[in-house]
Amino acid sequence: MMRGALSDITKAVGHTPIVRLNRVTEGLESDIYVKCEYLNPGGSHKDRVGLNMIKDAEAAGLKPGGTIVEATSGNTGAALAMIAAIKGYKCVFVMPDKMSQEKISSLRAFGARVVMCPTAVEPDDPRSYYQVAKRIAEETANCFYANQYHNPSNPNAHYLSTGPEIWEQCGHELDVFCTGMGTGGTISGIGKFLKQKKPDMKMVGVDPVGSLYYDFVKTQRITKAFSYKVEGIGEDFFPSTMNLNIIDEIFRVDDKECFLMTRDLVRLEGLFVGGSGGAAVAGAIKYAKQSGRKENILVLMPDGASKYISKIFNDEWMRENGFLEDEKGLGTVRDLLAGKPAGPVVSVDAKESVRDVIDTLKKHGISQVPVLEGNKLRGMVQEVDLLRLLVKGSGTLDSPILDLIESDYATVTMSTKVELLKSVLSDTKIALVMERDGVVGVVTKIDLIDFLARKATPAAV
Length: 461
Ligand code: PMP
Description:
There is one protein chain. The chain is an alpha/beta fold. It folds into 3 domains: about 10-40 and about 155-320, Rossmann fold, CATH 3.40.50.1100; about 45-145, Rossmann fold; about 335-455, CBS-domain (Roll), CATH 3.10.580.10. Helix content is about 35%, strand content about 15%. The chain has a 6-stranded mixed β-sheet, with helices on both faces. Strand 7, helix 6 and strand 8 (about 200-210) form a beta-alpha-beta unit. The longest helix has 18 residues, at about 155-170. It is globular, with a radius of gyration of 24 Å. Bound molecules: 4'-deoxy-4'-aminopyridoxal-5'-phosphate (PMP). The site of 4'-deoxy-4'-aminopyridoxal-5'-phosphate (PMP) has 16 residues, from helix 6.
């Protein structure tokens, strides 16, 4: 073989550069660097996962000519299809029908078969893409079902490849590693390796508003997930590939912050990255501002901008979704709260009894109240929970309130759009407005109705 050449494209996976951010980080004490995983040949960090999954599948008996099945759309599909093309495996990808034509076409370009399924069905419906993938895998001989949400080869890929590579590039000089979280393979695998090398290395997770992870890490409660536009990060269930214990700190970002930062990374830093990269940098900057220390922070850039040209880099799409500065829209949670009577949020302490909480609800004429420990949110208590307890006789007025807290609420931030709040409140009773882990406001359906009614009839106010 000719000197200087690689034997095939899979040998070009990894060894991605680490680059310092210079302009979007102005004024920060810390230095923020990015790991350019979007430069992998299949277009993302999932190339490493694809290689490791296929290596493990071969060790477990996948034979030449076999079929790889996955219920996916994006980057894992591209990685598997690229490797399968070289190794001569067939690929079947099962996708929900909301996926963009570009994504479907690029998988077909690698020779993969793509099966479309309806999006609007429950996960256990036999027509759902998850069930169809499982069924195809069961019915196909010499088949490997990649199952990235529950396959330990996914986090292991990062433990064996990305983690050691980062350590070789940065060593002890690295203080903080920050990334978005989807399957959790990235943070779990890299985190395990880096913490073995340097136990006080900090792992910072970034989660989109609407995903389950943030609230669960903060309060151990499974709150209501709702939809958002940034792709590849956040979940509405808990994959077994995610080790939440590895996370030292978690920060939350909304779509607008993610997309404006993604645009800045391209326009100011020349980094042609996708939305989850912008999300991770936006989260890392929040961390850096909060920490205030001089640290070296490394942020993983999962994939490239080319998949999002018709979205994040399209002014019309950005404006339609209210992500550009000159948008009109209905305003944000901040505007809504400004129209409510001022005053601190009524809350109760986790140590209080049922009796104390009833007094608080009566005194303020409210039917639910957040329960805090210090200033940390533990959950909500609703009038109906108290009623149930007393009617069933399963507790008394002296019972601790902590036993009654529940999770039928969603959490939002001051900059969450009112348009989004409408869909949040159609799924759940109440939205808690959070800032720096503290509850700064409570929004119920009637608050939203009141806000929208006042907007519709300004003269009547
Ligand atoms: N960003 C993008 C664009 C992705 O496709 C993914 C994978 N879902 C992630 C981030 C998150 O990576 P992981 O699944 O390893 O948490």
